Amino acid sequence: MSSYSLAKPLTGLSNQPTEAFMPDETEPDNKKIEHQSSAEIRQLKRAQRCTLSASVQWQHSKSLCQNASKEKIYRSSKNIAFYLANDGEIDPSQLLEHARFLGKNIYLPILSPVKNSLYFAPYQADGQLKLNRFDIPEPVCHPSEWKTARQLDLLFLPLVAFDLSGNRMGMGGGFYDRTLAYLQHRHYWRKPVLIGLAHEIQKIGQLDSQRWDIPLDFIITEELIYKG
Fold first, then answer.
1. What pLDDT, in 10s, does the model give residues 106-129?
2. Which positions ≥6 away from 41 have C-beta within 8 Å?
3. pLDDT tens digits, residue range 193-217?
């Protein structure tokens, strides 16, 4: 079997940035940002991540893979859903290929044809993709191969902003919230584990949470791993 080359993981991860990762003084004040409306926060954070160069995006993707791949929940999970990066989102493609190398079953979200929620379709290395109504690629396969969220072990979610309480701001469509609504009534056997993936610049002090929001179990950035 060929080997998978993965650079040495970052060490000493915690909820506190190390000196090397202290925010730049020119970055917007998160205390001010959190008092803005959801629409304003969403616009600002989308704009910030879209300013990242291709080389920075690649390095963030590599560091994300290093951080996530050593986590126990990732190592023990068999059925894992990813996403294809869009609109400046941190790109999990290097982590996806690492998971494929380990023999894990890879899935991507697809829009339900009858309701505004998601199913998850198997994603093969040579599989065909088609654009959905939001111009996001989805695997082409028979509906009998689709899985529901509760059939997954681990779900990696994109996001626009997050806080240290595990609150996630998405694009505003509510697709993941509707898909995961059943978790609001689950106190035990909560599947899948929810991990948000983001650039560190997408963190803010505190997000307003709504009753329908589903908190994340972890957030992983290019710098740190946060427990929700």
1. 999 999 988 889 999 999 999 999
2. 33, 34, 160, 161, 169, 204, 207
3. 999 999 999 999 889 877 778 899 9
Low-confidence stretches of the chain (pLDDT < 50) are: 1-3, 5-27
- Helices H / strands E in the chain, number of each: 6, 11
Q: What is the pLDDT of residue 194?
A: 97
pLDDT score, position 36? 75
For residue 138, list its beta bridge partners. 130
Q: How far is it, in rounded angstroms, from Cα 182 to Cα 180? A: 5
Q: CA–CA separation, 58 vs 208, rounded Å? A: 31
Residue 193 structure tokens:
């584990």
Largest CA distance in the chain: 53
Q: Are 110 and 120 in contact (CB under 8 A)?
A: yes
Q: What is the pLDDT of residue 189?
A: 66
3-state helix, strand, coil in the chain (%, to 5): 30, 20, 50
DSSP per-residue string spanning 205-228: S-PPP-TT----SEEE-SS-EEE-
* DSSP strand pairing (218-220 vs 225-227): antiparallel
Residue ranges and CATH numbers for the domains of the chain are 28-227 (3.40.50.10420)
